[in-house]
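Researcher: I'd like a candidate sequence for this fold, 288 residues long. If you have to choose between options at a position, lean toward the conservative one.
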């Protein structure tokens, strides 16, 4: 009895310590985000045009709740997602690697005010009209974290919240949805390599089908037809057709490479995901 009580107290203490570390990380990352983005608060958005309804709906709601113009409300929505995205990266990386320090370092690097990281996101969201893409990309780590939880443990709440998150990505930006689906597929494949492949494939399919069902009202045949005829849609089609001949060579090689080096090696999962994303997005860049 004494041993059980001691074990419970140790677990409780560890949980409390972990919660304190998470809270400190969140506060620090929020401070950094506010520090870097403070000059943009109150400015009116000028360049964004949205092909999906999430940001217009959120910004319209803000104009009803606060004394803001439509442009100021759009900027505020984009700033909120820019500030929250490093926190999302922190929790996803911590869950994947199992170390809070790794998650915190990843979030700090992601927050660096350089052209490769924060400055590029600010430029895309607030200056050149890609705000919808940035919002969708900010949600990718959340969807990835919930997908990992569902694939590993089959938690029902992770399925529902993950489907909703992927649905929000789709309602923020079609391009962001495409990037998110590619990322989630790489993560899911890394989980298949660790065992219980059939069960995880079934769970991944359910996860995606739920998200599709949630956004079917927007991504109806008429919208998809218009999207594919647009300049962005034509670029995606061209990229896809260029990828088809490459995939006959690359996919079998990558599949065999993955199984030989990473099968049932949990400690190498982050490396597989990193390499998979680099290779796949490099191929997409080359094909486009």
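Model: Candidate sequence:
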């Amino acid at each position: 009895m004494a041993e059980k009580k001691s074990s419970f107290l140790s677990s409780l203490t560890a949980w409390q310590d972990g919660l304190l570390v998470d809270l400190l990380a969140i506060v620090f990352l929020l401070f950094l985000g506010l520090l870097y983005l403070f000059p943009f608060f109150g400015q009116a958005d000028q360049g964004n045009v949205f092909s999906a309804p999430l940001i217009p709906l959120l910004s319209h709601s803000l104009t009803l709740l606060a004394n803001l113009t439509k442009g100021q409300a759009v900027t505020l929505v984009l700033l909120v997602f820019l500030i929250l995205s490093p926190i999302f990266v922190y929790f996803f990386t911590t869950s994947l690697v199992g170390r809070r320090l790794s998650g915190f370092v990843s979030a700090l690097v992601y927050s660096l005010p350089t052209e490769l990281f924060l400055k590029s996101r600010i430029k895309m969201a607030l200056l050149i009209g890609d705000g919808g893409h940035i919002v969708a990309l900010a949600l990718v780590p959340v969807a990835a974290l919930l997908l990992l939880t569902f694939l590993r443990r089959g938690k029902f709440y992770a399925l529902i919240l993950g489907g909703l998150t992927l649905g929000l990505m789709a309602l923020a930006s079609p391009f962001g949805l495409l990037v998110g689906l590619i990322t989630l597929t790489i993560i899911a494949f890394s989980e298949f390599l660790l065992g219980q492949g059939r069960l995880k494939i079934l769970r991944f399919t359910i996860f995606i089908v739920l998200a599709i069902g949630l956004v079917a009202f927007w991504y109806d045949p008429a919208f998809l037809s218009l999207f594919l005829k647009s300049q962005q849609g034509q670029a995606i089609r061209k990229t896809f057709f260029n990828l088809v001949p490459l995939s006959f060579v690359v996919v079998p090689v990558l599949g065999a490479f993955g199984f030989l080096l990473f099968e049932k090696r949990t400690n190498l999962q982050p490396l597989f995901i990193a390499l998979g994303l680099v290779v796949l997005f490099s191929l997409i860049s080359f094909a486009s």
